[in-house]
Amino acid sequence: MTPGALDGMVTPADAEAIAAEVLPAGVERFVTGGAGGELTLAANRAAFDRLHLLPRVLADVSATSTTATLLADPAALPLAVAPMAYQRAVHPDGELAAARAAFTAGVPFTACTFSSMPVEDIAATGATVWFQLYWLRDRGVTKELLARAEAAGARALMLTVDTPYMGRRQADMRGAFTLPEGVSAVHFERGRDGVPSGARDGVSAIAAQTAGVVDPSLSWSDLDWLRDHTRLPLVLKGILDPADADRAAAHGADGIVVSNHGGRQLDGALPALDALPAVVDTVAGRSRILLDSGVRSGTDILKALALGASGVLVGRPVLWGLAAGGEAGVSRVLTLLREELENALALAGCPDPASAARLRTARAPGGDLR
């Protein structure tokens, strides 16, 4: 993809169209697809579409800012790159290209347990790195990953709590999806728990690998063990029920990510945006709240802020940008999100992300004001 084509992108959705053209069919399905009948995948977007904002007027927005504090550190946008596995399946530079773009944009990059580049190399890009952890069957490997993330300079630990098993992603199963040659989960090298290389009919190699290494026995009591083995701020990703959010805050979680895994886990789960207000009300400031699943535009970010989130995680648009043009493609997507957010904040009468919390919202048609 030429730089001129990237400059011609007007929205992150333009990157999606380019990615659909350039990615192999199996990889494109892996990135874009969801679980089951993809009801939750579609519902995530529908939730954003039916939420309406009431802009404020006669507010001086001649000088606006997009800076925010997501956890402990300031960011240029109320946005972090979501944890996403195997990014070299999308582009040869994989996580390194995406992390360099995040560094340029001034936003955190979340390195995944199943990354195709080592956390040390990702951190060397200069980006603010958060490390995402799946709860592993092998506690020794878990301790090693925690130590590596801390030594590399990770600023937070994000524990994914909605994946005791992988959701039934039917497109991957039908295509017996396996990773492209040379792409692997590098944190499991040296012959331990590698991704199966052979495809089998009706089986996703990714699902088989996840089942082999992720421990489904994860429970609240394990958070104490985790606290004993890391000094990093702890974020729990994958919470929808306010009762779970309340318990997470009581356990001292520094952050909570309201998420249904982008529609890739339980099909039929509540859209994350619809779950957000009750979580915000229940947590009542005890933990920072981030929103993940379905964010596609700057206006989407504004809607999440209006419902009380401190910021959002952005996933698929980053992968589309990566496919479209490597680091330059991700940079273009992040630039578009910044430009869209700047415009949306100003038109809503908000000089900065923090002021968006005072906006009222309504769900259409005929929804009550909030």
From TrEMBL:
Family matches, as InterPro entries: Aldolase_TIM, Alpha-hydoxy_acid_DH_FMN, FMN-dep_DH, FMN_HAD, FMN_hydac_DH_AS
Cofactor(s) in the UniProt record: FMN
Entry keyword set: Oxidoreductase
GO-annotated molecular function: oxidoreductase activity
One Pfam family recorded for the sequence: FMN_dh
UniProt domain FMN hydroxy acid dehydrogenase: residue ranges: 4-366
Top-level class of the enzyme under EC nomenclature: oxidoreductase
The UniProt record lists the keyword Ribosomal protein: no
EC number: 1.-.-.-
Keyword Phosphoprotein: no
Family: Belongs to the FMN-dependent alpha-hydroxy acid dehydrogenase family.
Name listed for the protein in its UniProt record: Alpha-hydroxy acid oxidase
Organism: Streptomyces narbonensis
